[in-house]
Amino acid sequence: MIYDFGLAKLLMPDQTRTMTRVRGTRGYLAPEWQKNFPISVKIDVYSYGIVILEIICCRSNLEVNVEDTDEIVLACWVYKCFSSIELDRLMIGEEVDKKTLENMVKAGLWCIQDDPTLRPSVKSVMLMLEGTEISVPPCPTYSPNFWVEAASYLTNDSKVVMRFLHNHIFTRFGTPRAIISNEGTHFVNKVLASLLAKYSVKHKVATAYHPQTNGQAELSNREIKGVLEKVVNPNHKDWSKRLNDALWAY
After folding, report:
1. Is residue 53 in some structural domain?
2. Same domain, 27 and 125
């Protein structure tokens, strides 16, 4: 029924008659194929995620005859509706259980993450679709519609976090609907909780057992760290001076 799954054969050419080059339907192929990244079983998870979103919306992953250009690419359209809490726009004229719809959308968005390490296993996807609690997925694709903000400080406490939020987030982009952080004491404390409550900002905490909740930040941190490792001195003491250049390169 779905012909893109299992096309990646980890065999030498003389070990099989099956073609092992990039083959499949455009729109269902994982980004690894275009980026020349190592191929794994997670490419099938990506394809399955696209199929989930197609089933939900009753349309193909690419539609050019639409009124709104935001609707052309299905994955981008679904994430936009999800992030703006407007999933009903995906099911106009249909009566559905909102919780079930939200879970299916979350499962699909987790499956189509650009970073294959963030994609769940097939077993996890099945559990998601059966009703297991699903964390909020990050934006599935790299996009110029988001920026990474970072700054170096001598200490790491609640006052520093509040200063960073005020100087780099609130005064530049406005107050967000929610903030996701890890379980560090500089994030989880009464002072910061009071500040976020003042501006009606929800605080979601990513646990060590499920770091994917903060997947976009984890991915950005890893890539910026990789940039810094290439430009800092051997003793790594000048990393703070190179941070802005690394952000610009990223």
Report:
1. yes
2. yes
Cβ pair 112, 49 in contact under 8 A: yes
For 194, the domain range is 158-249
**What percent of the chain lies above the pLDDT cut of 90?**
24
Main-chain phi, psi angles of 240, to 5 degrees: -65, -30
d(CA 82, CA 77): 9
Residue position matching structure tokens 């910026």? 224
pLDDT tens by residue, 63-94:
877 777 778 889 989 998 998 899 988 987 78
Read off the DSSP letter of residue 188: S
Same domain, 33 and 79: yes
104 shares a domain with 21:
yes
Within a 10 A sphere around the Cβ of 112, how many other Cβ atoms? 27
- 97-131 pLDDT, tens digit each: 989 999 999 999 999 998 888 999 999 999 999 88
Instruction: Give the H or E element holding residue 103.
Output: helix 98-111
d(CA 20, CA 140): 27
